[in-house]
Write a structure and sequence with these properties.
Layout lengths: L1 E4 L4 E6 L6 E2 L4 E7 L2 E6 L4 E6 L6 E2 L4 E5 L1
Pfam family, one: Biotin_lipoyl
InterPro entries: Biotin_Carboxyl_Carrier/Decarb, Biotin_lipoyl, Single_hybrid_motif
Organism: Bacillus thermotolerans
Length: 70
């Protein structure tokens, strides 16, 4: 099981996947917004989304868990 984490602090602008969805390595899964910039967060491995820890509009800190992929 792998957890996708925030690369920096910011607001969750968009969650691009749903629980149960298959993702591929390099696929954008979440878009963070920080300092008026959109920062895509990508899957590090192929797998199925098991759990989404955040909602759009949430504030996250660097290294916070966003999504769990199995």
């Amino acid at each position: 099981m792998a957890k996708i984490q925030a690369s920096m602090a910011g607001n969750v602008w968009k969650v691009l996947v749903k629980e149960g969805e298959e993702v591929k390595t390099g696929q954008d899964v979440v878009i963070l917004e920080s300092m008026k910039m959109e920062i895509p967060i990508t899957a590090q491995a192929d797998g199925k989304v098991q759990k989404i820890y955040v909602n759009e509009g949430d504030f996250v800190n660097e290294a916070d868990d966003l999504i769990e992929v199995e």
